[in-house]
Amino acid sequence: MVKVLSVIHDSIVDGEGLRTVVFTAGCPHFCPGCHNPSSWNINNGKEYSEEELVHAISVSESNDVTFSGGDPFFQAAELVPVARRVKEMGKSLWIYTGYTLEQLLERMIKSELILLALADTIVDGPYIEAERDLTLPFRGSRNQRIIPVTGELRSRAAALMEESSQPIC
């Protein structure tokens, strides 16, 4: 079960193109100035089964998908099957995270690496209020990066998955 705050359709601010956005519950970063502090508490979310969440996403057939939060990597193991289904539908997947790419790779948590490898793009880094810049596309502060998940990055994540002794779930 995935804890979800909301699913919205037809967003143009959460990644390129028209997107369905899944706002997940739970975030360990507690960024000062966060635009959605209610997302920090995982108990604020409603439980969705994989099937329920995939159905909610597929209502807008032409939309690509964004996982936002909270921090989707807080529920990486629960989101991996949903992300796989999103990719099977031929949709692009953007994922927002307060972790940096380097932190995700260093943590070597299998479910996080699998989720990372399933993404087409991640927007990484915590929101930093002092670096707020509303002119930036698809992010809120200058420290945050838009990173395409290329074949090279996918290969690196796969190699780290092999090294990791952690179970997927």
TrEMBL record:
Keyword 4Fe-4S: yes
A Pfam entry, by short name: Fer4_12
UniProt keyword annotation of Oxidoreductase present: yes
EC number: 1.97.1.-
Keywords on record: 4Fe-4S, Iron, Iron-sulfur, Metal-binding, Oxidoreductase, S-adenosyl-L-methionine
SUPFAM superfamilies found in the cross-reference section: Radical SAM enzymes
Cofactor(s) demanded: [4Fe-4S] cluster
Molecular-function GO term, any one: ribonucleoside-diphosphate reductase activity, thioredoxin disulfide as acceptor
Gene3D superfamilies on file: Aldolase class I (3.20.20.70)
The organism's place on the tree of life at top rank: Bacteria
Catalytic activity: glycyl-[protein] + reduced [flavodoxin] + S-adenosyl-L-methionine = glycin-2-yl radical-[protein] + semiquinone [flavodoxin] + 5'-deoxyadenosine + L-methionine + H(+)
Domain Radical SAM core: 13-169
UniProt record similarity statement: Belongs to the organic radical-activating enzymes family.
Role noted for this protein: Activation of anaerobic ribonucleoside-triphosphate reductase under anaerobic conditions by generation of an organic free radical, using S-adenosylmethionine and reduced flavodoxin as cosubstrates to produce 5'-deoxy-adenosine.
Name under which the protein is recorded: Anaerobic ribonucleoside-triphosphate reductase-activating protein
